[in-house]
Amino acid sequence: MKKSGQITIFIIIAIVLVASVAGYFIFRGNLFQGAVPSSIEPVYNSFLSCVEEKVYTGVDILESQGGYIELPEFEAGSDYMPFSSQLNLLGNPIPYWYYVSGNNIEREQVPSKANMEEQLGKFIDDKIADCRFDSYYEQGFEISRGAPDARVLIGNSDVEVNLIMDLNIAQGEDNSLIKNHRLIVNSNLGNLYDSAKKIYNQEQDELFLENYAVDTLRLYTPVDGVELTCSPQTWIAEDVFEKLQDAIETNTAVLKTRGDSKDYFKIDAGVSEDVRFVNSKNWTYSFDVEPADGKLLIANPVGNQPGLGILGFCYVPYHFVYSMKYPVLVQVVDGEETFQFPLAVVVQGNQPRKALDATASEVGLSELCQYKNTPVAVNIYDSKLNRVEAEISYECFGTKCNIGETSGGYLKKEFPQCVNGYILVKSDGFSDAKYLHSTISAGSVDIILNRIYKKNIELKVDGKISGKNAIITFTSDDNSKTIVYPGQKVIELTEGQYEIQVQIYANSSLNIDAATNQQCVDVPESGLSGLFGMTKQKCFDIEMPAQIISNALAGGGTQNHYILESDLQNSETIEINAQSLPTPKTLEELQNNYILFEDKTLGVNFK
């Protein structure tokens, strides 16, 4: 038994010795690292400092570019959806974590932590070559290094880098070969990324940014309402959108994740860091509204038309439907570190977009746009057959594919196959064109664009230049242009057939007293007689509020006129001659003006 125990002890000692020798060769880089000769130590410390600097640089890029060092493939936006796949922040591209592509496909680009670690490791590998030893070469050092392989682990409050690379440093008889290099740098990248993910997931679940956008829309723009007046209500779309942009920029900036839970602008995101939400009017955006008459929102009155005198008053109901798309940059801040990512806010038809499923993944390109295999040649001309540069796209059953830009007014490219699709043409200074063309087989298309001309409008009433308020509308089969005169005196037109209408309004002091009218209707009788179709009369009192009509129809008319391009080319001003109507003093006289208006014509001259 004693002999057996001694043998066991020797075996254990042998195993320990073998393990020690093996460990020496396996970890000798790290062992040598702790025993670097004092003459070589400054060189190695300089190398570690350089690597540390590259780590901090990579972390800074990750934080400033939404978790990316290598950006995903760029995808351009479109007129319908203005977002590209990146937000341009002062020349720095930041990939959207959520956006809608130009062909209306929702996309997510949220990097994983593993992907961030991989990108940071590759960044360090690429940048180690920038670590220079020139000053040490001059001191007689011999330095060689192998291929680097950096392994990165992003913790909550630090970033650990294990760099595997042979680094041989020698001077005279001193020589060190270091294979493994370990660095831990202080950084809150992990915590910031986790908090950014929480905010992003909450936005996708609750759409709090879209809900704030809808509230802003209803507070700062005409959406639904009724005005007691007999004259149309008009808003200039550009003014409405400008006011809305200012409101979005301001209200986005005051959103916060800290403070009183009853605060309207407080978002319960469950994060400890400071969070900023940023929007700028200078970023890409899109605002649309329907119904719109050119650049105007117009709501027409009810109650002054012929046959509606029984109402005893006028009112203007309005309902406008908006679509908004704009970016918001989310910044999660802890001390001097800021992790930021952008996302798109989308409101369609006055309503927030639908929330994404939490497991939503990236969606590929539309199959229509992905498979372009029909060669089509497109020639773009103006009315004088001069070639025009333009942007070409193709639309098939609601899906729009970007094709490209012409060169010398000519483009030949592959189009997706489609029956009865449309070639869409956009060019500065010309009206947009939409040309029906099937792309089942190869072919060529010639498209002529109508040039847009800006013309001054001069309104005369009874032969004299007028300063009265008027709504002037040019309506054609393709579009409608409206201005509110005299605040607006310039209109953009192309050649074509137009119905020109002028409605002139004058100051009025027409008072309509409050009144109660009785209206009676036939209703079915109750009981057995009702089953046989018997009815009885039931009357209701309708109270009409008092009203002061400050603007009343006082002139105008309608004229159909074909406007030639030569008329637009050779003139600066369109003179419109209208006739006045008597100033109404009663609601009946106001209604009579509308009857007289139907027979009034206009004179149109170009000068």
> Percent helix among the residues?
10-25%
Low-confidence stretches: 21-34, 307-311, 358-365
**Count of domain modules:** 4
Radius of gyration: 37 Å
* Largest β-sheet summary: 9 strands, mixed
Beta fraction: 35-45%
Distinct helical segment count: 12
Class from helix and strand fractions: alpha+beta
Query: Looking at the structure, what is the overall shape?
Result: elongated
**Number of distinct beta strands:** 35
Report the mean per-residue pLDDT as an integer. 83
Distance between the termini: 126 Å
Word description of this protein:
This protein is an alpha+beta fold and 607 residues long. The chain has 4 domains: 28-71 and 125-182, no CATH class; 190-352, no CATH class; 367-448, Immunoglobulins (Immunoglobulin-like); 453-606, no CATH class. The protein contains 12 helices and 35 strands. The strands form 10 sheets. Strands 25, 26, 27, 28, 29, 30, 33, 34 and 35 form a 9-stranded mixed β-sheet that branches. Strands 11, 12, 15, 16 and 17 form a 5-stranded antiparallel β-sheet that branches. Strands 5, 6, 7 and 8 form a 4-stranded antiparallel β-sheet that branches. It starts with a helix and ends with a strand.
List the topology elements.
Layout: H1 2-26, H2 28-34, H3 41-64, E1 86-89, E2 92-95, E3 98-100, E4 106-108, H4 113-127, H5 134-137, E5 142-145, E6 149-154, E7 158-171, E8 174-186, H6 189-206, H7 208-220, E9 224-227, E10 233-236, H8 237-253, E11 274-278, E12 286-290, E13 296-299, E14 316-319, E15 321-334, E16 337-348, E17 351-352, H9 367-370, E18 372-381, E19 391-396, E20 399-405, E21 410-416, E22 421-426, E23 433-437, E24 443-448, E25 453-461, E26 464-465, E27 469-475, E28 480-485, E29 490-493, E30 496-512, E31 515-524, H10 528-531, E32 535-544, E33 547-563, H11 565-569, E34 573-580, H12 587-597, E35 603-606
Parallel strand pairs: 18-24, 25-34
Antiparallel strand pairs: 1-2, 3-4, 5-7, 6-7, 7-8, 9-14, 10-13, 11-15, 12-15, 15-16, 16-17, 18-21, 19-20, 19-22, 22-23, 25-26, 25-29, 27-28, 27-30, 30-33, 31-32, 33-34, 34-35
